[in-house]
């Protein structure tokens, strides 16, 4: 039985459209943590038409997980035998019973023509519905919500569906999902304070360690390895991890990078190559896979060049050249910077749209399926916006894609995250590896994400509960934590977990923890059992229920049964 606080019950009562019809059950409700990020404004006009998008329950998830484990295990006869796109779609398509039941109900509940309801190959049911009919069908009220940056979004506080459809529907948009803060993971450079004149860096200043003295163990090292405790360069990375010099360029092994809201400068890359990787010719640039009006590069003094994309490309090119890099730069500048540096309206959806047309949120058989105020809408009406249609299935994903952006689990509904995690599983089944930076703030999110500290509150606790990362908590993502050398260490010394007292960000540290939304996968069981047997932190914990509504129960501060991350450091 799910227990709600008094505040939560009041919130649900306020959002329902009159009495909940007989035979209906609550399907999703906005969490109090997510509600703190937005402010409810006006209701919508009853005759306004909105795009309703229903995520139908997919088949084959258990089979998909079993197939993935066999494909991934070297001892399996199926090792490396990845599935095709068509095989994946056939495996996960919703059942005909699910499609028929939901389609029939929606047509009757909203009084729209059944022929105007479309079903995508990837399990989405799409329709245009008047607000008054949608509110009646889902027993809710739709509102405009204002986020903390003043931008309006469409949604509701909670919605209900008939009990007999609970097992057929994952989630509905517009619904309780609002756009989460999406932050670029910060690289922890070292050196004295300062920056290029005229630049407005939006990352924390690294600590200044004063005049440099050669560490005791550095005297017998080559000159380019003597300063790695203060300045990590490509030779330092090679020495630490035993990476040989690259000499091959195979088109099937291009490395993919996801970037959004931050743009590289070619002159910065050239300067880095000249000093730290002279084997790379000036002008070497990533292969553009630009999505929905994205553009790059920019001038070095452009305010959208904060150095983050530069660092990604600097280091990657230096380690793998002459192998090519593909840059998945997403969204036009008005959308990518809608709420400031590193914050996106649609999180990773337009990226997935461009890789897999069947996942597309925009159009299927001519029907718009975007949720205004949640996912970027194209053509973009904002000044300087992209005038083309949203791009669907236009790029093939590279075998490895690196992502250094993320948000907190608590910023997104449970059902939404599990659905998106399944989409990543489909990419992995096809032979793609998604590598995600685990985060920057220890066991919490960044300060101000839901609470002043970035940690969670709940079950009578105030900002004491761990706040896991949304993407790293997906079991099919390879989550990578950060490490560092201390100023007096060399590449011959063991690394430690990245942690520094940065100006404005004390205890800035590599992120890790246990998911509240995803159970621990079987492949982690032995390692995590050994961790608790030998290194139990002795901290109070809880076991999250199916909807993660009991976070913090019994005074616990982390979910003992959750997916553990990062996978590697």
From TrEMBL:
Subcellular location: Secreted, Extracellular space
GO CC term, one of those recorded: extracellular region
GO molecular function: metal ion binding; serine-type endopeptidase activity; tripeptidyl-peptidase activity
One of the Pfam families matching this protein, by short name: Pro-kuma_activ
Cofactor: Ca(2+)
Span list, region Disordered: 176-203
Any one of the GO BP annotations: proteolysis
Residues of the Peptidase S53 domain: 231-569
Signal peptide limits: 1-18
The UniProt record lists the keyword Cytoplasm: no
Main localization, broad class: secreted
InterPro entries: Peptidase_S8/S53_dom_sf, S53_propep, Sedolisin_dom, Tripeptidyl-peptidase_I
UniProt KW keywords: Calcium, Hydrolase, Metal-binding, Protease, Serine protease, Signal, Zymogen
PANTHER family: PROTEASE S8 TRIPEPTIDYL PEPTIDASE I CLN2, SERINE PROTEASE AORO, PUTATIVE (AFU_ORTHOLOGUE AFUA_6G10250)-RELATED
Protein's name according to its UniProt entry: Peptidase S53 domain-containing protein
């Amino acid at each position: 039985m799910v227990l709600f606080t008094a505040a939560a019950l009041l919130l649900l009562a306020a959002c329902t459209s009159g009495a909940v019809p007989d035979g209906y059950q609550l399907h999703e409700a906005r969490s109090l943590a997510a509600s703190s990020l937005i402010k409810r404004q006006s209701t919508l006009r009853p005759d306004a038409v909105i795009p309703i998008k229903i995520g139908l329950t997919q088949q084959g998830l258990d089979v998909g997980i079993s197939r993935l484990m066999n494909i991934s295990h070297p001892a399996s006869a199926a090792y490396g035998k990845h599935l095709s796109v068509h095989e994946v779609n056939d495996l996960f398509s919703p059942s005909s019973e699910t499609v028929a039941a939901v389609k029939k109900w929606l047509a009757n509940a909203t009084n729209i023509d059944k022929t105007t309801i479309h079903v995508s190959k990837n399990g989405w049911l799409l329709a245009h519905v008047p607000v008054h009919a949608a509110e009646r069908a889902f027993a809710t009220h739709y509102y405009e919500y204002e986020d903390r940056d003043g931008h309006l979004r469409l949604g509701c506080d909670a919605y209900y569906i008939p009990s007999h459809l609970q097992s057929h529907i994952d989630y509905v948009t517009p619904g309780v999902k609002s756009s989460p803060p999406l932050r670029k993971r910060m690289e922890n450079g070292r050196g004295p304070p300062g920056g290029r004149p005229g630049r407005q860096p939006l990352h924390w200043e690294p600590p200044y360690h004063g005049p440099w003295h050669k560490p005791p163990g550095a005297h017998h090292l080559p000159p380019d390895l003597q300063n790695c405790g203060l300045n990590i360069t490509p030779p330092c990375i090679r020495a630490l991890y035993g990476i040989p010099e690259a000499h091959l360029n195979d088109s099937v092994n291009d490395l993919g990078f996801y970037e959004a809201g931050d743009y590289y400068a070619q002159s910065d890359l050239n300067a880095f190559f000249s000093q730290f990787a002279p084997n790379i010719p000036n002008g070497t640039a990533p292969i553009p896979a630009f999505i929905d009006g994205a553009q790059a590069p920019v001038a070095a003094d452009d305010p959208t060049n904060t150095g983050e994309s530069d660092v990604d490309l600097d280091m990657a090119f230096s380690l793998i050249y002459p192998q090519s890099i593909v840059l998945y730069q997403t969204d036009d500048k008005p959308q990518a910077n809608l709420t400031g540096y590193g914050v996106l309206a649609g999180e990773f959806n337009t990226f997935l749209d461009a890789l897999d047309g069947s996942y597309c949120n925009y159009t299927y058989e001519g029907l718009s399926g975007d949720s205004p105020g949640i996912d970027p809408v194209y053509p973009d009406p904002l000044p300087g916006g992209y005038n083309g249609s949203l791009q669907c299935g236009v790029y093939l994903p590279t075998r490895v894609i690196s992502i250094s952006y993320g948000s907190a689990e608590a910023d997104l509904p449970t059902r939404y995250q599990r659905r998106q995690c399944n989409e990543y599983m489909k990419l992995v089944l096809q032979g793609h590896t998604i590598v995600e930076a685990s985060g920057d703030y220890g066991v919490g999110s960044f300060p101000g994400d839901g609470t002043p500290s970035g940690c969670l509150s709940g079950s009578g606790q105030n900002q004491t509960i761990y706040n896991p990362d949304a993407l790293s908590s997906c079991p099919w993502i390879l989550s990578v934590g950060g490490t560092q050398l201390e100023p007096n260490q060399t590449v011959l010394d063991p690394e430690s977990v990245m942690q520094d007292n940065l100006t404005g960000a004390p205890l800035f540290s590599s992120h890790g923890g246990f998911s509240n939304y995803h159970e621990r996968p079987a492949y982690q069981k032995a390692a995590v059992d050994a961790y608790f047997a030998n290194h139990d932190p002795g901290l109070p914990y809880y076991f999250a229920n199916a909807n993660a509504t009991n976070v913090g129960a019994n005074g616990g501060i982390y979910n003992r049964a959750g997916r553990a991350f990062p996978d590697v450091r």
